[in-house]
Amino acid sequence: MTLEHFMNDAISPWMREEGPDSDIVLSSRIRLARNIANIPYPILAAEEKLADVQRFFQKEYANKSFDQYQAFEFIPIHDLSSIEKRVLVEKHLISPHLTKHTKESAALISENEQVSIMVNEEDHLRIQLYLPGLQLRQTLDKAFEVDDWLEEKVDYAFDEIRGYLTTCPTNVGTGMRASVMMHLPALVMTRQINRMMPAINQLGLVVRGIYGEGSEALGNIFQISNQITLGKSEVDIVEDLESVVNQLIEHERNARNMIKEESSTALEDRIYRSYGVLAYSRIIESKEASNCISNVRLGIDLGIIKNTSRNILNELLVLIQPGFLQHYAKKTLTPKERDVLRASLIRERLQLEK
Fold it and tell me: In which residues is ATP bound (predicted)?
């Protein structure tokens, strides 16, 4: 397995599977922050210490398998081009933060792209694991298994009172971020999302865009995650998040039904116009493409558009991103060139469905 394995397909293998409530919840993710005892945190450690950490994980885990996660590929970030880094971020395999500290940073990524272990990010280790749909508890259990596998050879920085010790104080305790990626077009259309966000924040959760902190909610996709890591167990955090997510699912379903009943013609017009834009445009910007993809996905979920797979929309959301477009073209593109190629690839992909 090589880097190209992760670069060439816009959609990760695990994303092709259906999960519970996957018409609204795209994915569940657990991320665990861990540091190695008696080694300074990455922001303070000397380069030779971080190089030792990188070499250790390359030696012990490169090309190794665990459970169903086969052949972890070791990828030094320093060896990647700017476009390759961007593609891995766009596929959620690494964080934007990891690409900024490339000297001794790396990633271990499983063959099915379900598990990614970032080395020398903000912490020595950032372990993340994904499952399709709403499967937070199952994702947590599997993340614990990977965590235990690593801990067989790694002595974590841990305090009996404070829990796992991390670079950022907001991660101390469990060191865990649980999150779900949700498609909420009806709540956006009815503007209910505007009053829900402050309420969600008051519950100790945070709402972000598709690529996390500081990113925009492109295509009506929102990331909901916990803020509190200290004073609660991992199970309690997951249960609290799942409770809020279930309420959001119910509100989104109700909003979809209301729009379909009260404004069916306008809704169908919006969906088919969006499909037409995707199917026939010769130039399209990423924001417009994301919004059209969101509308078409809603049409598929409501049974208005038939014979088109929901997975194609998941694939297109990555395919239209700047990094992936430039990787496909095998060169750096101007914004206008990206808009032209984006339209071409979308047309081509939709034609394959017919």
Answer: 27-31, 92, 126, 177-181, 208-213
Segment 267-312, tens digit of pLDDT = 999 999 999 999 999 999 999 999 999 999 999 999 999 888 888 8
Q: Check residue 296 and give left, alpha or beta (phi > 0: left; psi -120 to 50: alpha).
A: alpha
The rounded radius of gyration (Å) of the Cα atoms in the chain is 21
| Positions at the binding site for ATP | 27-31, 92, 126, 177-181, 208-213
Residues 330-350: tens digit of each pLDDT: 999 999 999 999 999 999 988
| Annotated binding-site residue numbers | 27-31, 92, 126, 177-181, 208-213
| Spatial CA neighbour of 44 closest among 140, 150, 120 | 120
Boundaries of every domain in the chain: 1-16+30-173, 263-352
Averaged pLDDT of the chain: 91
Question: Which CATH architecture best describes the domain 1-16+30-173?
Answer: 2-Layer Sandwich (3.30)
Contact indicator for 324, 286 with CB cutoff of 8 Å = no
Helix/strand/coil percent split, the chain, to 5? 50, 15, 35
Pick from 197, 182, 212, 244: nearest CA to 121: 212
Q: Rounded distance, CA 114 to CA 249, Å? A: 24
For the stretch 213-267, pLDDT in tens is 555 667 899 999 998 888 889 999 999 999 999 999 999 999 999 999 999 999 9
